[in-house]
Amino acid sequence: MYRLLIADHNTQEREGLEWLITRIMPGTFELIHEVSVSATVQQAATCEPDVILMNFTLSEREDLELLEQIRHVSPRSKTVVVKHIMKEHLITGMQRIVQELDQEHMKRVEEKQQQEGIFPLIPLMENQLALLFMMEKTCDQMIEKFSRLLQVDIDAGYAVTVAFPQVEGISPTENHLRLGRFYDDVRNFMKMLGPCIVSPLMNRYMNVFFVFERNSSCTRHAAACQTERLVRWLDHIYGTKVTLGIGLLMHTKDVLRQSYRQAAIAAAYGEAQSKSVAAFEEVQKRASEQNTQWLKRDTPIDFSLRPEMQLKWEELELRRVQEIGALMEQAIGYVEEQGDQGADVSKVAQYLRLESDLFSAIFHEASGKPFEEYVTKPRR
């Protein structure tokens, strides 16, 4: 979420702005309110909000002076003087600002990844957990195992199927590179939107599973708005028309399995209808009104991916075993090199660029014993 500071003397006007923003862009902003000029400047300095909406009754000169003060204390904030702006123009302007914020955030993510790198085991296990939600026959114990390793609590959530457009007249290598670039960017963008598990890219599809605690305030409208942000961003950056299918927000044990099939149906429907975003509720409504077969058949997307899922799982599992082996070698080598100082699990995890809990869980799974037991027992 981005921080939005709404600054207005008038309570009714302030609440009206909040209502408008949350209705048009739900789940996008964490809202902060201020009622005076001095408090607005102080809040800008303290919180450094991403966006400031000001609606004070000031002269033009006073507005400019206030803008200058805010720029001085919070140079990254995007400040908008609301008065005299029509509602339609304000909405358009805020959508453009969010798009700019998204682009800036993605650039920072890319730079950080280039500097720090990502330990490959984490996205590998994410891919595997996502596949478990997609495959017809899976073991609940496996889902629990990977959820525990990734420290993911799945009480509620929904699935999104992303269908990249087919492009004719390019080589398989060019297409692979093109889809790989889209996949990485979509993955990073979805991670920005909220906690999620991302599938591998298969054919020209990927699936994203957003997960929440049971008491989460996420709504269907917010989910649709978030996916529309992705569509606008991809269109702006690449000129790429993707289709997104959204499954129902579920609160059941098989939450993500059910939502995945719904998302795949919605994406197939969206492609058939040339829609950029299609929600499963829309498919249900259309099927009811026109007695279509959309809900009574295998979706083309799910059907086309099934033969590939098991092969992809085996490929990922082999890579996971190899990565765990490499991690264990690095961890044990570090412990041996550091002696007593290497017995601190947090230091070993930091050395491997992993969270301590994740490293402990992986070490226990691979060695059959807790890390603490390994370092306290005599070793030859």
TrEMBL record:
Ranges where the HTH araC/xylS-type domain occurs: 329-380
InterPro entries in alphabetical order: CheY-like_superfamily, HTH_AraC
Gene Ontology molecular functions: DNA-binding transcription factor activity; sequence-specific DNA binding
Domain of life assignment: Bacteria
SUPFAM superfamilies linked to this entry: CheY-like
Name by which UniProt lists this protein: HTH araC/xylS-type domain-containing protein
Organism encoding this protein: Paenibacillus selenitireducens
